[in-house]
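User: two proteins, same treatment. go.

Assistant:
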Amino acid sequence: MAKSQSEGNSQQESFGTAKVYINNAQSILNKATGFIDYYDFTLNPYRGCQYGCSYCYAAAFSPNSKMRQDWGNWVIIKKNAVEILEKELQKWQNKNPDKPASIYMSSVTDPYQPIESKQMLTRSLLETMVKYQPILVIQTRSPLIAKDVDILQQFQRLRINMSIPTGSEQVRKDFEPRTPSISARLKAIETLRYSIPYQKDRDIRFSVTITPLLPTFPEHQIEFIRKLEIVDRVVIQEFHATQTRSLVAGTRQEAETIKQKYSWWYDNERVNYLKFKENLVSLLSDIEIKEGKEGFGFE
């Protein structure tokens, strides 16, 4: 195998447009901090993300500046993730026999990005986790998650967050052109919602995270919001502040450039944000509407 210039990872054949690397991780459960410090751990099956969304703060945590600039065109597979996870969950259980670990999957990648269809690494991790029954939140923008319903329904405490930052397809194509369509994501979360039967001893919840809130054309807003009635929570959040330092999470310049196309929204961003929130509250009266960090907890 040829060695890459990415921290000595072994490079494999490409998957789609992305270069694929293999790496043995030192750990798979990392202490959750900052925005998601509600949890004990974050779990990222992969490093990097093929979706390469223009605004994604996770690009800041690329191995080096070159890979940061090439965000979306590479992914690192944590080859030993399942083995490490088993050891770490067993260690937690030994120390905390009466307290399940709480895990946020994932904070800096999408666990269901396209390569998951081939690697099924996230699925293997779920199969390990279900034996230990952690409190688990899965964050994704991919309909691939629906294929794992057989495992997901075995969890006792689970929240699935589907990321849908806009209700307008043109906006999606501008800001995140490699991602699945809005309709595909809505169909996936609906499929999961109605495929997992209610049980008294199980607490499985569903959210749509509109984070960051991207423009939605006025003529699309009402129809889009009404389609969110299938979940129990909707989360909204504005853009991160822009950062120019290479290893600080923030809105990337790529997204700032695209925002200029939508001056009709961003020239009055706060007003449009509040109007959108008002529509959410009025149209989804039986659904939790939460903002920012508050919306990313399990409860």
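Protein 2:
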Amino acid sequence: MENPNTSYARTPHGNRGTVHSLIDDAAADSPERPCLTDSFGQVTYDRMAALSHGFATWLTRQGAGRGDRLLVQLPSRRELVAMVYGASRAGVILVPLNPAMKKYHLRSVIEDAQPSLMIGDGPGTAVLDGLAEVPVHDLAAIWPEVEAAAREDASPSVDVRPDETAFLVYTSGSTAAPKAVICPHAQVTFASRAIQQVLRYGPDDVVFCRFPISWDYGLYKVLLTALGRSELVLDGGESDLVLLRRMRETGATVVPIVPSLAAMIGTMARRDREAPPPVRMFTNTGAALPAHAVTALRDAFPGVQVVRQFGQTECKRITIMPPDEEHLRPLSVGLPLPGTSVLILGADGEPVPAGETGEIVAVGPHVMPGYWRRPELTARTFRRDPETGSLRLHTGDYGRLDQDGYLYFEGRRDDMFKRKGIRMSTVEIEAAAMDIPGVRTAAALPPTDSRDLVIFAETELAPHTVLKELAERLESAKVPAQCRVLAELPLSLHGKNARQALVEMIDGEGR
């Protein structure tokens, strides 16, 4: 029997170590606060809790139960946020995929995840249909059923344990094989609370997110805003040309960025004649922000904090520069999350002294247990501490700690190489290139057996000018042999440099 007056603010909210406990807590004490705004309008916390109950009920009626995988390929809208919490409530593992993922990769991911059911959106549903012998549902067809279930009295949530898996998050890598990080409730909620402790989202914050929920950077914004009782604004696919206008209209105060988005916002703000949106904080991840991008943001948004972060999906976040300290150590990526620690290990596996470079190893309750159905890779990446037995994430990234415990990132395993007898990193070469006036962004490719060190630069400058400027900034051994100038560097689905596309471009020229 339907009860249109059901209030999910009054629903008991046990299972505090679970993903759905975050929305239950928010709905209990802030039921009428805005939870999110998408292209269809605004949703309160109480309403989002109701929709999550409705979706959990729908899943149960489809026969989905604890440990089943639900694969969704959907745009970032209220329905997907309700699924994040509703799947958790039903004990179902959510597998969110980017709507832009093509059939070639979808086929591999579906084979790997082995979902019990899948949900698509419009034409995307037809793509999913036929890739596996499991039910495929169209979002528009099922959502009226979810809405109807949301009006019923809330059925009790499954007694989900914190050590059960909440998500499988597929990450990009250097190989074609799919690789999903297993994300249990306990690790996800710990990481979320630790990040919130540093960033301090509040009830007056409006978090403007342009990133897909299929990427952990977008996914955790859903959880962080619930912890802060903040409002999440989801990108509705609007043109880049109206970006600043949308930030103004929504009153954006926090904006997650990657370097490409930072450059776009800085450029548009410089040309804009209206008052800037009320942004108090930008948070960066994915790659280091070039100095000119940071300067452009600070010039356009007076008093704004530009927070540097470093992490991997395998533990979500490793370090954050405390917002109040952003000017003190401009090259550092910050301190370990509260309740976690960072080790720097040498080639022998032993810790190195402060100031020396080694592999970055993360330790703490945020370290995920491994990769889905990849035992060998799991064993190499997630290892037990020889003394305490706790799980450690061996990131394959390199960096150093200073005497005060602040981390300095120096490059990923694939970024580090030797040339002319000197060890170097693509990171430092790219940073030098982006220091050149007129270079918007840059990507370096390490040398191989068939070619030397190459730099790609997004600029109107001539290649020889870029190389000349680099020679004034770098040791001679670190100056690339070649420069390729592009009007626009290709980007991945997450806004990072698409290095594989650059490799194919340069290697194709030699054929």
